[in-house]
Task: structure prediction
Amino acid sequence: MNSFLRKLSWLRRRRQKEAELREELDFHLEEEAEERRADGLTEEEAGYAARQDLGNYALVQEDTRTAWGWTLLEQFIQDVRFAFRSLRKSPLFTVVAVLTLAFGIGANTAMFSLMDQVLLELLPVKHPEQLVLVAERGIRLGDSWGDNDISYPMYRDFRDGNQVFSGMFCRYPTSVALGYGDRTERASAELVSGSYFPVLGVAAIVGRTLTPDDDRIPGGHPVAMLSYSFWQNRFSSDQSIVGRQIVINGYTFTVIGVSQAGFAGVELGYKSQVFIPMMMQAQMTPLSDRLEDRSLSWATAFGRLQPGISIAQANASLQPLMHSILEVELQTPMFQHYSDYDRAQFLKNSVELLPGSHGWSGLREHMQTPLWVLAALSGAVLLLACTNLANLLLARATTREREIAVRLAIGAGPRRIIRLLLVESLLLSAIGTVLGLGLAFLADRVLVATYFSADSAGDLPVSSIPDARVLLFALGTMLLTTLVFGLAPAIQSAQADIVPTLKDRMGSAAAGKQVYLRKLLVSGQMALALLLLIGASLFLRTLANLENTGPGFSTEHLMAFSIDPSLNGYVNDTANVFFRRLTNDLQTLPGVSSVGLSTIPFLQGHGWSNPIIAEGYSGDPGQEQRPICDMISPKLFTTLRVPIVAGRDFTVLDTRPVALINETFARKYFPGRNPVGLHFGLVNDQSARPDTPNLEVVGVVKDLKFKNLRDPAPPQAYFPFWQDVRLRHMTFYLRTRVDPQQVMQAVREQVRRLDPNVPAIDLRAIDEQIGLSLKTERLVASLSAVFGGLATVLAVIGLYGVMAYSVARRTQEIGIRVAFGALQSDVLWMVMRQVVVLSGTGFAVGGLLAFALSSLIRSQLYGLQPHDPFTYVSAAVVLAVAACAAGFIPSWRASRVDPMHALRHE
Amino acid sequence: MKEKTPSRIELLQGTLDLLILRTLLTGRAHGHAIAKHIQRTSEELLQVETGSLYPALHRLEAQGWIEASWETSDKGKRAKYYQLTTRGRKQLASEHSKWKAFSRAMGLILSPGEEEAR
Result:
């Protein structure tokens, strides 16, 4: 410690130490000389002898400095200074290298930042790694609203019967009408069990959190917590919020607290604004009371593993409990009417625990594959950037051969040379990284604004501002790239055989070896570029295919909005009247030609499927593809301009149970028959037992895309909306005579006139909505196109560099050839042949790589195969044209070599 | 590059430190004097290379075993004089006993007879 402090103080007065060392050594020399003089040597001889005795003065200085203990640091500073100087001397090289790195590192940092937030970020709760999601696997006899959802009674059984969790909670996100002061707005609510906050370990910043005592009696706990950001934005961080009354769906609630900053629920992409006890479910989601319903899976359940218990152990331990729950469920009346086969299958259901540390997210599941694909592509760009840099550095090493050789000759060790060159590379990548971070920030801002903000699910917590993890990633990438691109050239330079280099720099053996290495690198670059171009064109064509296929209805002058009057007390008949009145009101608007309603919005990934039995159809309803059902109004298909191919549309006079089906439904369940007038029945509809199909088909409509643009139309059945007593949410479709933008304001006002407290949500043109439904595809296509373009530019620069260098090196040889009668075209072809060989090798490797890797992205493609020959050929042609253009310039220059000039050269 | 005088003995790694410390036990001295003293006392068998003397001196100073001061030499010139510190004395004692043990061990192995005869 003492010696460290002493060294530190020496570091501060370094100049003085230097002077003192010189004085000390000079004194030594004088003493020595004096001694020699005493031995009888002349003044001159004595001085000379003393110097000889001392040896290399500079070396002694250097060695002594080492004892001061900061040589490494000092040499590093020296190296950095030197690197700065030498980079300034070759500005073109520096600019190209820094830009190459900035793009490579920037692309990866931007991707990492997105992935980190969408895929890797943990919940801001205590020990998130202990959280698991509890899901049921196997067949569902009742309704399931999500693959990982379970029923509330099942959650309760797990909570009370398990031996592996220190606590469990469940939650359900839902929209509510929230009134405070004199305004009402639609807010994102999360129904949470009383254990939610205690188990997550999330505290209240004001007031208190919900506890199990706030969640005991159904309908008996009108208390709510606000999220931090909601409290900040809507209540200006009012400290006296606790005890304030707010109105949710017409019920008066008391605010008991505000959750800690940064916490907005456990679902990424769904920012909860208000937390409400689970027991208030019936009040919050009108027309459905699900707390005792075992046939409806709707809640997401989480458990916190006891310390020391692994997911696998917990999983095994929960299976017997699961089995006993299932047996209890089968005894309940709502499971009575299932066949023995179904019951036997049902008992085989199992429980699955999924890691819950990231919370739950539809967005994550949806974005996972595309983001990984993009990350892989950006990684390939970085690799390409590295090869390009290695290539540039090798070229630079050749021009610096003499300088390095001189350094080696006057005593610099190879290690020192490597260190010097690596510091230079490090400096390059440091500048590149800083620039790259800037680029990444800009790129993420564009990406977040384009793809992550205008989401109807609520604003996403994705930000473009780099955090510590992103900076750390950039730093790691910087160091890694430095090693990847800098080490090989540095080692090669330091091992150079100095004697031939100092004698004659042209055509040294080392240069020949370098050219070989550089050509190898260029072939590799061509391979990577082709791979990226093929990927990019696969994704671009997927996007184009999806855009061309369309939804199966005309989207021109079509707009839509959603509305949920049930949150404001409109139920059953009043809701029915509300929808009819609004339909009539909207139809009278100038510019609107027709209006249709559907309870499920098209192309937004939603759907309600139900097993059916059909007249004259013998398949097992449990095994077949279930039709997707929807409640609609008359004239919906007129509005969408989807023709009714047989039978008729609904009319308001339809009071008997009637249905419209699509062509796929007709083909599947009524093959070869005219379906109009035939009957089918919904299997788990309590009133309609499977043996009495009660729904009469009155018409058949043409197929249209329902959930999204990708999936072909499923069998579909439509019912009149006024026959559903549990009607809540409706999407209105309006065909306009003018641009939808022109009537939006009028539509909004018309809705407000009917009831100012019921807002129209997601009011937009269908084209815009289809655009939104393709945003992932667009993200992948545009980014992969950018990466592909970047890769092509980098590879072409690399090729040009190598060819230009090779021609320059062979000027003399070419001169001799020309002198001996070679034609311009011979020389041109001689060089171009190399270009063809280099690119050809790269193409072969890249093509094979693409062939092997592209099947990994099969699920991301639409309308073409991963091995689509047209894509491969066109990508290769594009790259080949670019490569030939880049190769032609040096070839042409070679063909114009003047032999006289070339032979005098050097 | 390196010429070796046959009569000279190459210093073993680490022994130069010990020799410097021992030399300074008799009083303060500058670098040249230390080198000469070692040379003379070893009957010219040990030649201290200037190239390793000064790094060693500075290393010992950094360790805090010797300290330096600028003073006027007997010939009236400014010179850097080194002298032993208290910690240096302790270090010398411990190094010295280690060396004795080491040289006895070497002797036992290299010439067992001689050692027994003693």
Summary: The longest strand of chain A covers residues 165-180.
